[in-house]
Amino acid sequence: MPLTTPPGGTPARRRPPGMTDVARLAGVSQKTVSRVVNNERYVSAEVREKVRSAARELGFRPNTAARALITGRFGRIGVVALGTALWGPASLQVALERATRAAGIAVVVAHTVEGEPDSVGEAVEWLLDQGVDAIIIADPVDEGVEVRSDPAVPLYSLGRSVPEAENLLAGASNAESMREAVEHLLDLGHERVWHIAGPATWYPACDRVEGWRAAHEARGIEPPPPVEGDWTPASGYAAGQRILRDPAVTAVACANDDMALGFIRACTEAGLAVPDRVSVTGFDDIPAAAYFTPPLTTVCQRFEADVIRGLGILLRRLGGAPTGAPEPPPHTDTPRLVVRRSTAPPANRRNEAPGKDAR
Amino acid sequence: MPLTTPPGGTPARRRPPGMTDVARLAGVSQKTVSRVVNNERYVSAEVREKVRSAARELGFRPNTAARALITGRFGRIGVVALGTALWGPASLQVALERATRAAGIAVVVAHTVEGEPDSVGEAVEWLLDQGVDAIIIADPVDEGVEVRSDPAVPLYSLGRSVPEAENLLAGASNAESMREAVEHLLDLGHERVWHIAGPATWYPACDRVEGWRAAHEARGIEPPPPVEGDWTPASGYAAGQRILRDPAVTAVACANDDMALGFIRACTEAGLAVPDRVSVTGFDDIPAAAYFTPPLTTVCQRFEADVIRGLGILLRRLGGAPTGAPEPPPHTDTPRLVVRRSTAPPANRRNEAPGKDAR
DNA sequence: ACCAGCGCTGACTACGTTGTCATGCAACGT
DNA sequence: ACGTTGCATGACAACGTAGTCAGCGCTGGT
After folding, report:
1. Is the CB of A35 under 7 A from strand C?
2. What are B46-87's pLDDT values in tens digits?
3. Which of A100, B51, B320, B343 is an S-S bond match for B279, by CB 3.0 to 4.6 Å?
4. The CATH classification of domain B19-62, taken from the options 1.10.260.40, 1.10.10.10, 3.40.50.1100, 1.10.3720.10
5. CA–C1' distance A30–D23 (Å)?
């Protein structure tokens, strides 16, 4: 099968047009086309326009493979994400791709499997095979495996899940947001706030535990021991059955909304009214949270802002984005705690501070 | 800055090793290295091993850019996905990447923005710029915009959202699953089943409406008019407030679990017990569904199976997967309806058919 | 009048891989 | 002894782009 153009007649070529074809049509050299396409200097306005229209006419699209071959850069980053549809990870990934595309960089995803320790390593390996300029570990689970990396491809993480990688979300909102939620409960008059945490292998879970603990320590209070769940409503329910045997429990901060849902169910079944007898907060503000019974006081994460800021670091490390690096926007500190009806002052203080009415 | 190796001393090269380097170390030609790497025939076992160990020693990784440049194929497909963390789209995307990687093909994602009609077109354009062998439109929303495609890059869709594209999920489970749920309700003795649908712009929503309608028509029943929501619990709640004015309503099939949640809340507030007075089904089987009050009867989708089957079509079109195409597995028809406690016979038949006890 | 500098353009080459073709060698049948 | 066949290997070209450098015409300073 000859790939070259047949000598006579209309050249019915299959091959997509290249710079050489554009150059021929515009009557210039291939190099000049390259200059126009890359917006280099030293091209007269006249030639520039001629090349542009020729490119448009042929439907020319620069070949990224050839470009990557010679520059050694791919204009792509790899993202290792946990293969789950959970609200947090999924939202993070969307935010990541948005911010990346805005910087002219494409995203190649590889999903891991929770519980398979080496799936992170496999994903990294796969991405390195594909050719990427950098890799971001967005998997929030630390299975304790060290990732062997290519020295030429820097490794980053969203939430310090990998020691070999630089964390792009250093000052992220997890701990701080949870602290806000706990302080809300303490401000309402609760003496201590119990905590239903996420799995200890998840860094966001650890951060939230930290924020919960910090809120107590700032007031010189010793927090009760946290209970570990696995993000599912089932685990929140089970935790509730254990915690609620202690009559001192009046306020519980859950590490996500799903566990809060399960916990509320445990309360209901135990005959403990929410929020009259027990106050509950969630984390994530999933769409359903406002329609729990009662509507859940929870924390809304700022994925977009955090990711954009973190990606700014990465882009600067890569030596400037191809299409002009947007400066990371100033850290706009929007309110994160969404107060609904699952929180109220404890029963013994009900008359002092009347509960807010949301609706 | 000279890129070539300095003449004297240790060659402290920055450039990653190529086949030429491996060849030099193994004492063979570069072409032979290519043969070994690509598992071609006509290489003696001895040489093969020598090359392998040389490649391992240098940490050689074939350069995909160079390969793509000459073969004209990238080993990548682009996926246009809706930028949302909703359960369905997110699950689909994970399943898609899993199946694709198993076939040795990488995924480049581009997210759209719901409500921005041209964001699909922009995403496609962006993916074409990146260089992909095919594009899958996984965005479930049809904004009615036609997508201009490159003739060299075939366009596929997951759920026929784009007329220019071939649908990979032709016999998918949406309609059939919904039909199963509705038949479950009819079997329980309900005369008619109301429907809270998703937005009419979403194809999965249309398919579910279709399944709901089909279940009625198969029994010669005229279904009541469907009510359209927007997937959120809020819309399910609002729909409930409208529907529940009609005392004839005894069973409602919701197009997703979140709307079912909102609808249940509307029932509760209206003093209508679920399932004693009104039966409700959801769709998706999100983790929280089992912990609603009451636990939700819903439908579990088979993303993995559907996507693997659909991808089989694509891979065969692309002319066989690089690393050996796995044949699409036989369509294992696992049960999809998960019966929990939100469904029961209507009040007037309660004594005839006792409700199942799940727990 | 001459050269230096600037703006603009093109020729040539390298990038790392695969495709094509040629070549060397051994085994085999005549 | 000879050609034929098949395996194993290498030489060489090509893919489409960007980097390097040379060269053009013009301007301005000496």
Report:
1. yes
2. 999 999 999 999 999 999 999 999 999 999 999 999 999 999
3. B343
4. 1.10.260.40
5. 17
